[in-house]
Amino acid sequence: MALVIENDLTSGLSGRFGNKFIFKQLRGKTIVARRGKPTTKQSALQRDNRLRFRMATKFAQAMMLDADRKAYYWKMAKEMNLPNAYTAAITEYMRKPQLKEAEVSTDQSLVTVRVKADKKDFDNKAIRVHALGKNGEVLETKETTATRDEWTYTFSVFREMMDKVVIEVIDYAGNVVRKKIGMELELDD
User: Could you give the residue ranges of the DSSP H alpha helices within 80-159?
Assistant: First the structure.
């Protein structure tokens, strides 16, 4: 660590310079130090969380450019006691939608799906259901774009042709929660 004395070029600098030097301000003086090396390696969970937060900040920056979405996030920030719209947008990205309940029922040869989904403090963008055939091909897909939390849909494809039902809950940040339900037993994805 070095103390910079009477150098007009570096006076008041702070931040990184290249890959080796860090300029800091300490008690009104400029200090130059070598860049520190991390003492431990990041775990996979830390790496994933940091990547997710980086994506959340990009999402929030994009939302602040849209006047309607920015106004929406200001409203949400006030309701949630957050400092600003940007923080509310990051909060939305970080909170995943929740699939509260998924029920598949059959009546003769028709299949009906009832879905309850929620997202704390925010709306979901859509609920989507897929009917999959025996070899995994998509037989039918239906989506609701209403922001309601509960939705019931009856497939037009007959039960005998279906093997699984896939339910997806999508929010405005692009987070997707999926659940696969077999016609005989339930499988979590």
Answer: 85-94
Rounded Cα distance between 51 and 40, Å, is 18
Tokens of residue 165, six digits = 């039902």
For the record, the structure tokens of 5 come out as 């004395």
As given in the structure block, the two tokens for residue 46 are 């830390």
Task: Please state, in angstroms and rounded to a whole number, the distance separating the CA atoms of residues 175 and 30.
Answer: 44
Domain with CATH 2.60.40.730 in the chain: 98-187
What is the CATH number assigned to the segment(s) 98-187? 2.60.40.730
Q: Which pTM value belongs to this model?
A: 0.68
Q: Tens of pLDDT along 20-65? A: 888 888 777 888 888 777 778 889 999 999 999 999 999 999 999 9
**Phi and psi angles of residue 58, each rounded to the nearest 5 degrees, phi first:** -65, -40
DSSP 99: E
Chain-centroid distance of CA 98 in Å reads: 12
Q: How many residues does the chain have?
A: 189
